[in-house]
Amino acid sequence: MGNNERLMLKLMLSEPSKKWLLDELLSGIGWEDQVHVAGSGTALSDLGLVSIEESIETLVSLGPEGELALDDGLLESRLWRCLSSLPESDRTMGRLFEEGFERHQVGPGIGLLKSIGVSIDSGKLVATDESLLGDEIEIREKFISLLSDGPVSGSQLDESMVSHFLGRKGLIAVEENISRSWTLTEKGSSVDVTTLGHVEMIGEVTPELLQGDDWKGAMFKSFDVNSPAPIPSGGRPHPMQALIERIRQVFLEMGFSEIEGDFIQSAGWNMDALYIPQSHPARTMQDTFYLSEPKKIDVEEHYLDLWSKVHEHGHDTGSKGWGRPFDKDESKKALLRTHTTVNTVRHIAENPNEPSRVFGIGRVFRQETIDRTHLPEFHQIEGIIHEKDASLPMLITTLKTFYSKMGYPDVRVRPAYFPYTEPSVEVDILWRGQWLELGGAGIFRPEVTEPLGSEWPVCAWGMGLERLAMIILDLDDIRQLYQPDLERLGRMPIL
Ligand code: PHE
Predict the structure, then answer these.
(1) Which of 96, 211, 360, 447 stands 20 to 30 A from 224 (CA)?
(2) How far apart are the C-alpha atoms of 39 and 475, rounded to whole Å?
(3) 31 and 82 share a domain?
(4) What pLDDT is recorded for position 348?
(5) Residues 193, 248 share a domain
């Protein structure tokens, strides 16, 4: 037994049949940290000297909606108050909207009223028994007002009301409070107090100690390496940053160099250079964020000329083009880049005769509705191999190598379509028995490479980063990555 256990046992022996609470033990021994009581208590219970009792108390308090209900009344009450002030012939759902209730209130509100005796009779809301309805609403509101002064123990509340309100969003919150007490066992009460004096214990084995003889016959403090301890929270890179860093290492290791580009681009470089027809649906305001300031960005006339020829009739790429007039003003529209392919294309334009293998990891912007797997700002892992013998097998091998290094060796490609590649493929990886689509790739069409001044084929790809992050970090909602919840971020795997 260590000194802490001795102290605790000694105190408890002063009233051997008492049930000790945490505060009594802390003040009786003069400890400040409850960790000492928990630790010594467990050690004494392991020795069979003390028994520990746990009791769980639930505390019920008002949630944000509950606080609102305190002032304005519950939704069913507000609706019924409004309905009953109207002549019976006007008690319709439509009328509730006119009275200022919103769709998200009327729907669930009618549901609530129906469950307490309101029915819909040829479009009118009628109560089977108005006074019964009033009583039920009153009981509910009384319950809510019981909680107005702060949390109340669940044992003092009507259980059916608690479970009713738990089924409604934000009205109440239930918290569990565990309290413990410690009592001597028979064996514990028969310990002789005089044997419980302070003992010298060696807590640290040092070289000095081992050189002498003092350790012989001494008592050593024992450590329970399995006992629970708080996890230290240190600084760490944000998981997304760590993932980006790892991807960067993989491409660098594979012999690629990194490139970057601006978020703001012209439609010309973001789309026309990629032979995306000017009438393409993805070019509308619904998909693309166009800027009002600056509204236009200058694009070199030389490229505008070439793109308009290529788009209109194919120029001398061997293609027939889109066969539609090309609008140079459209090319000058400023936008937030919708893909990082704009970076690789510009890289080719700047280095048309130099073989290159480059990659970039960058943010892109699209008008997406936010949900579990979509954000209007996300990242792409983009890259190209631009050299004389670039080919589709080379592209596929490169992507396979990349994903294997990331821990996903099973990669497959399926035929796909992009206006700027031929052939085009969709890239999937195998994850827990499922194929997940992670991006697009292909060989740039001559309509793309020729105006840039290149004569070589280009292997190109653009992969989603967030989707990969979700599987690597085991997230079911992409938004978790960007919420400043330090605790959750801290628990994500270290890459
Ligand atoms: N830019 C495409 C996208 O955003 C991906 C892609 C890149 C496809 C390069 C083919 C070649 O989905």
Answers:
(1) 211
(2) 35
(3) no
(4) 98
(5) no
